[in-house]
Amino acid sequence: MSQLNTDEIEDIAGGEFERQAVPESKLKSWKSFLGMYAGEHAAGTEFMIGPLFLTAGVSAFDLIVGLLIGNLLAVLSWRFLTAEIAVKNRLTLYYQLEKICGKKLVTGYNLANGILFCFLAGAMITVSATAVGIPFNMEMPRLTDTTPNGITWVIIVILIGAVISLIAAKGYDTVSKAANWMSPIIVIAFIACGIVALTQLNVNSFNDFWNIWGEGGDPFPGQIKYTFWHVVLWSWFCNGAMHIGMSDLSVFRFAKKASSGWTTAAGMYVGHYMAWIAAALLYAVYLKSPEALAFLSNGEAPPVAPGPLAYNAIGIFGIIAVILAGWTTANPTIYRAGLAFQAIIPKVSTFWVTIIAGSIATIAGLFPAFAMQLLGFVALYGFILAPFGAIIVFEHFFYEKAGIIKNYAEVAHIKFNKAVLFAWAISFGLFYFISIEFDVFLSFVTLPSWLLCGVLFLVFSKYMQRKAT
């Protein structure tokens, strides 16, 4: 569930043909995207997400089958929405939005995108810190912790954040190439962790494996109970900003055919299936330990610390894998947050906007809540940004039937398309209110919000365009 993290992706989305369609000579085959997505989605976030499913009391059927279906829906979204539109227009998300929304409104999107990137990067700094802290016998953050738990934690997070920020600001090309080499190591580490965990759990048959989760249980303190539909919808929309939110237009605009969208299955089933389940197995081992049982007997939630979990399974290799996984996710995420901020303050150099983004991410990393509540944060991330993708999707497929002008902001020379703002604000406000007032999980209302935003955009556009003529 990471952001893009290879040199190939940097070539694809890092500044080439920002304001023009990609020429035929620069198009790439499906093979270019296969390895990219496989590596992208087996990263630092996976070490947190797998265990967090167990804290939500999920059952075996709900987890294994729910992830199977939810990840398939994500692949279909990439294939038939993102890739389909990308190969027709061959424009970046930002330029496509600018044509529809106007420059001023896109500035607001960039700000939200940049800040959310920083918080996600902060969660990955937290993940790496749990590995770095092992030799120092550092107290690990608990599942319910929101603030720093000691000076050792603060020092380690600040040091990791400083290093990652400086590398992101000065050497992204080098880091991207290194990430290509690191991705296979991380995937191997997940496989090794899963195998070792199965051995530690005395799993000798599929029934033994299935019984690890059994019928599920009560969620840990501070967590909500996950059912089958929680797993399906959360796994579908955890990357909602990328597929139905159209962020990966910037990637698939280089694809020769829309069928390249199928390559996202490599990421979904290597990372969002195998890696999540492997990480969950690590936590299942820990939950049988005297330390975890002591927490549970006191009515407390045992900590979810990826570093110790991986170290318990595969030793020093586990520590290295967690550090690399957190780093290879946080570093490009900070870099892209810097690019989003630079779109707002273009006179500031890339170096300094990236340092600003890294500083925000490091501050966020000090607070374990972003990592410990990653399931909820990622649901919010997708809920906020995905409806902007509905604007692009509904205009692309329905502008003729709705009788509206395509790319209206560009055609009418306006910098702020009110139809877009009203559509997003109403859909976001209505369903966020429903979520809060009636305690509805955000992933349950992401699709309704997305659909309503698209429909309202067509309605408001038709009214405002007719009024302007």
TrEMBL record:
The chain crosses the membrane at residues 60-81, 114-138, 150-169, 181-201, 226-245, 266-289, 309-330, 351-371, 377-398, 419-435, 441-460. Coiled coil: none annotated. The keyword Protein biosynthesis does not apply. InterPro entries: CodB. Keywords: Membrane, Transmembrane, Transmembrane helix. This is Purine-cytosine permease. It comes from Flavivirga aquimarina.
